[in-house]
DNA sequence: AGCACTATACACACCGTGTATACACCCGAT
DNA sequence: ATCGGGTGTATACACGGTGTGTATAGTGCT
């Protein structure tokens, strides 16, 4: 629900219509992948259904109609709760890389290859992010650093796992 | 598609029915959150639709009917491609934490609180994982280490961001 | 009769993508 | 001068993947 909450947060600054929200979102959060228009409206309709936003009039000004949406009290409460609640690190436990290694071992394929492919891909990504970070503003730098820290974490895990492959193979084989 | 691929991988060991797959999955990959039955069958039906598995007979043995599924050649090819393709680190760029901090700053709330809440939750999770890691087998240890490395990465980012909050606030305010 | 276990099916909700639609405005070609 | 096409604004809708919850149905045990 991160995107829904982000849109709600933007609506706290005043009522807006969908197209406008998309641009505001891209400017603030979408540096690395702009929001699709479709997603804006489907998200808005869900927020509307759940009573977190309300329609605030239809302007038929220059160009096509604009449906303005305003955040409701329930919406503000929801943003507040979202900001006050820590993100759960479940995704870190649902580890696709680990699944790949185990399946490679189970099926007699090379688990080392799996690790190597991932490592070299990550190293390439890190070079690119380091470049992007160099000529970005502080916001860009923070986003890149976040990704870089996590890529480093992946690399540490890849090394650790590579060093334990024999023992893991024995354990999986049982 | 991680779960679909994991099920395909398990089917490489021979045809199985859904209930059996669920248990095999939980044993190998589901330590930290067992697979819901519903998901097994909906995933299987998608694999069937895409021709990656095929029905391999219905046994009406003890108890209810069992539909056995076998992996197809297309399925094996698909597993192979999955194992040979590195995972994209996009999720690290779509950073919910960053969104929270920016929205807190935009709405005049305390971004420090957001960071603090997340940090103390992470520290608690890390203590728990360290405990779990101590009395697990190698597979558990690797899973816990993966999560721990990423939690550390989050913590590093939280510290970095906390130290830059004033500058970020100025940049966002523009 | 009630409960637990095995096994599947189905309806539903969320999230995201792609495509169609509609209006307005500008600009060049006829 | 006007016709048509491209561009920008704005929304709606249908669809696909993913995951959850619930219903169903048979078997065996107590």
Automatic annotation (TrEMBL), chains A, B:
Lineage top rank: taxon: Bacteria
UniProt xrefs under InterPro entries: Tscrpt_reg_PadR_N (IPR005149), WH-like_DNA-bd_sf (IPR036388), WH_DNA-bd_sf (IPR036390)
One Pfam entry name: PadR
Positions of the Transcription regulator PadR N-terminal domain: 7-78
UniProt-listed Gene3D superfamilies: Winged helix-like DNA-binding domain superfamily/Winged helix DNA-binding domain
Protein's UniProt name: PadR family transcriptional regulator
Source organism: Lentzea pudingi
